[in-house]
Automatic annotation (TrEMBL):
Superkingdom: Bacteria
Record-linked PANTHER family: SERINE PROTEASE INHIBITOR RV3364C
Protein name per Swiss-Prot or TrEMBL: Roadblock/LC7 domain-containing protein
Pfam families (UniProt xref): Robl_LC7 (PF03259)
SUPFAM superfamilies: Roadblock/LC7 domain
Source organism (scientific name): Actinomadura chokoriensis
Length: 144
């Protein structure tokens, strides 16, 4: 289990899903998922089913790993990865660092305002960071 991840979805409640839904109030956005570095789904927006969100989480973890491995191409192998944007005929996928061992992915149509989405994702990352680093409730998993 990743440091900082306090079981956002391990009980099937998708307790942070509402925060992702809030991010999708922007025009031309489609889906959002929160995932751990090892590709486990932590939360998903209402518009995407859990099975599809889990499949996408695994792929996004691989994408993030590939992007991170290219840091030297940007000038310094120790440079921290922050964001990856992939463009497709039908839209974009934004993948951003969301805290210790967590990533946020959002898909959008080709008509989305990319700058606004990037800004909104950084705001959401700040909010999620507080949730992801808060200590687990007493007695919730783990031994005392």
């Amino acid at each position: 289990m990743n440091e900082g991840w306090n079981g956002a979805m391990d009980d099937g409640t998708n307790r942070l899903g509402w925060m992702l839904d809030d991010a999708l109030r922007m025009p031309e956005t489609r889906y959002a998922i929160l995932l751990s570095a090892d590709g486990l789904l932590m939360a998903h927006s209402e518009r995407i089913g859990r099975d599809e969100a889990e499949r996408q989480a695994a792929g996004m973890a691989g994408l993030q790993s590939l992007a991170r491995s290219t840091a030297e191409f940007c000038g310094d192998a120790t440079s921290m990865w922050r964001q990856t944007v992939n463009e497709f005929d039908d839209g974009y996928v934004f993948l951003v660092a969301a805290g210790p061992g967590a990533y946020l992915a959002v898909s959008a149509t080709q008509h989305v305002d990319m700058e606004s989405v990037s800004f909104r994702l950084q705001e959401l990352v700040q909010r999620l960071g507080k949730e992801l680093t808060s200590p687990p409730r007493p007695g919730a998993g783990g031994s005392a």
